[in-house]
Write a structure and sequence with these properties.
Elements (H helix, E strand, L loop, with lengths): L2 H28 L4 E3 L1 E3 L2 E9 L12 E5 L5 E2 L3 E4 L4 E8 L22 E3 L2 E3 L7 E7 L4 E6 L21 E8 L4 E6 L23 E6 L1
Parallel strand pairs: 1-6, 3-7, 6-14
Antiparallel strand pairs: 2-3, 3-4, 4-5, 7-12, 8-9, 8-12, 10-11, 13-14
This protein binds copper (II) ion.
The site of copper (II) ion has 6 residues, from loops.
């Protein structure tokens, strides 16, 4: 191979590699799941979410995820939620995943909810055994942090493909919180639930649309 041909081959390889890196960065930065609005209207709305142990669909069938139900009752693979300002948000989360456990037992205590409590399968609690938590729903800017009880490891009829249905093993967690002024707030899970990633914190735990999201307060 001549020197010119070798130089050309190297240049082509570098250009290809650069293009791949640019594609990765641009697609990472521009991924934006659809906005899912709460149902109802100011001053009281309802959000319905579910967590699944594995999404079961492309692009990451084995990633753990949240989903949100839109006002038409359709499950959407998104964590970008729209709620009105200065309102009460009633939340229902159907929890289909098993427990991972909290890294900090302090998070077993619900914070920032109305009454400082959560309701799990019809019973009111002001603390959850940290070993039983599967995920948390936390909005740091509003001081909200809610531990979500996982289904038992040996539960029958566990769901592995989203969206899960209520005929599959789940726990139902409800709570309410208040919104303040308009803004774009971050919310996320704090349980190291990303199976197969270092310390459980990569992949879905750092991706909007999976275990991280935005609360669009408008
Ligand atoms: Cu999680």
């Amino acid at each position: 191979m001549s020197r010119a041909a070798r130089a050309l081959a190297v240049a082509a390889g570098v250009a290809f590699g650069t293009a791949l890196i640019v594609y990765y960065i641009v697609s990472y930065l521009t991924v934006s799941p659809p906005v899912v609005a709460a149902t109802g209207s100011k001053p009281r709305v309802h959000l319905t979410l579910q967590t699944v142990a594995s999404f079961g669909n492309p692009p990451h069938p084995d990633w753990v995820s949240y989903l949100a139900r839109d006002p038409h009752g359709k499950w959407v693979h998104s964590t970008v939620l729209r709620v009105p300002a200065y309102s009460t948000v009633d939340v229902t989360i159907y929890q289909f995943d098993t427990a991972t456990g909290l890294r900090n037992p302090f998070w077993g205590q619900p914070r920032g909810t109305i009454g400082g409590t959560i309701n799990v399968d019809g019973k009111t609690f002001n603390v959850l055994n940290p070993d039983l938590a599967s995920h948390t729903f936390a909005i740091s800017d509003l001081g909200v942090s809610v531990p979500l009880k996982g289904v038992a490891d040996n539960a029958k009829n566990q769901c592995s493909v989203a969206p899960c249905t209520l005929s599959e093993a789940h726990t139902t967690v409800t709570f309410s919180f208040k919104t303040g002024k308009p803004g774009k707030l971050r919310w996320q899970c704090f349980v190291p639930c990303a199976f197969g990633f270092p310390l459980g914190f990569g992949g879905p735990m750092q991706s909007i649309g999976w275990m991280d999201g935005y609360l669009m307060v408008q």
